[in-house]
Amino acid sequence: xxxxxxxxxxxxxxxxxxxxxxxxxxxxxxxxxxxxxxxxxxxxxxxxxxxxxxxxxxxxxxxxxxxxxxxxxxxxxxxxxxxxxxxxxxxxxxxxxxxxxxxxxxxxxxxxxxxxxxxxxxxxxxxxxxxxxxxxxxxxxxxxxxxxxxxxxxxxxxxxxxxxxxxxxxxxxxxxxxxxxxxxxxxxxxxxxxxxxxxxxxxxxxxxxxxxxxxxxxxxxxxxxxxxxxxxxxxxxxxxxxxxxxxxxxxxxxxxxxxxxxxxxxxxxxxxxxxxxxxxxxxxxxxxxxxxxxxxxxxxxxxxxxxxxxxxxxxxxxxxxxxxxxxxxxxxxxxxxxxxxxxxxxxxxxxxxxxxxxxxxxxxxxxxxxxxxxxxxxxxxxxxxxxxxxxxxxxxxxxxxxxxxxxxxxxxxxxxxxxxxxxxxxxxxxxxxxxxxxxxxxxxxxxxxxxxxxxxxxxxxxxxxxxxxxxxxxxxxxxxxxxxxxxxxxxxxxxxxxxxxxxxxxxxxxxxxxxxxxxxxxxxxxxxxxxxxxxxxxxxxxxxxxxxxxxxxxxxxxxxxxxxxxxxxxxxxxxxxxxxxxxxxxxxxxxxxxxxxxxx
Length: 600
Description:
It is a single chain. With 600 residues, the protein is mainly alpha-helical. It has 28 helices and 7 strands. It is 71% helix and 4% strand. A 4-stranded antiparallel β-sheet has the order 1-2-3-4, with helices on one face. A 3-stranded antiparallel β-sheet has the order 5-7-6. It is elongated.
């Protein structure tokens, strides 16, 4: 038992107290013991087996438990900029390295201008970061910067706090300072990390050329350190850049490399980021089941580890993006619920614009249209700050919401604005054109949407194809409709989603109506209703039931039509859709006329 002093910390084994600048701070018992063991044996590395046996004597636990404790310990050390002292030795274990760097004419990267003291702004900032109090952290970092108390690592934490507040543009100069400071101190590998973060922020701002520049700068800094955490992050960022340049095969290869580095280093951040994008690009290339499995595992791995909110947001948004493009709304709703709980535990009162957008679309499918509209408008305001590239996508979602409500003028305005922002607003715009009697324009637009090798086009292909089949049937192109349906139905592994199966059934119903095979058309619409019910999409269920009610009226099944219309009425009131209500009233009048005719 002893007392160990390192940096601003003091760990007392006898009293089991951990002090930071003379003030006792909280540490979980296992975290305290983990740090104490490493400090007691700071002359050597400790294996995972040795640590597991010491921390959990006589109890069988997995390495994931040890990784969790190490991650929490690193978070404690981060309060004084010492998180890098805890070294993860790939495939072996851990070591704490407290050797002081040699004296240099240049100020070391992690040497502040003034020593920290109890109550100083820098300690308040680090404590706020540890407590996920991002606004408080940012304000304290600004005061500490004015007092010349910042270490270079603090610049990265300050940037993180600003990102968590939805102000990534303000993080850019701080990260650039960190790259410069690490470089001046000769810590080239450490400089690569903020350079990669700069590449990510610029990419999310739609500034691809700048992102590529920082990515290349990071490659220079990493040099030959291919087994480093920084190299894993570089590969992950490279995958995103390749995706933006419509090179999905190269993107997939880089994501695979990132995952392998993270797995070898036992680093849940690098591993989960590599895995989430490996799944993302598998989905682009048609490996649907494997892609979904990768993404679900990546999110579970990341959100069960001590990842920062930015990484957590990337994992969530990535899954939600794929769910939206494939119409996989049941999966989207499940992950949304889990992520909201995670956010509450990580101080995220205000979600990023992308996260708000994803939630808005999920709400538009499962909830009420007015709530969804309010949320997507809030997302538009936030996207202007943190992800302006996605503004066109948000306008597309807004158009879909207006279309579902039957507000066709507003829907067209939103779709046109989406297109002007560089986004393809399909298949929503084509469905609007169908409503407006412009079926030929809808068909041509959907055919154009299938052209290209970018990831939005590849991931959205199933939904566009299924809509195209409906439009082809309605424009008297039965051969094209059958060709598209065959592509969807002969690749069930690629298109297993209930939404695509529902749209395909609706397309087949359109064909049967054209061929006056109304009974078979009604059967396909019943299948569509069942599939839409599986994913909890009341508006789509109501649309299918309206079509089914119209067919049943033609077939003389008035009782069946009344049953379908009664369900539609309940949905129209719940989601507040004037369009559904208008269509319900039209068919109710038609049904009443059929009754009068039958009675006469």
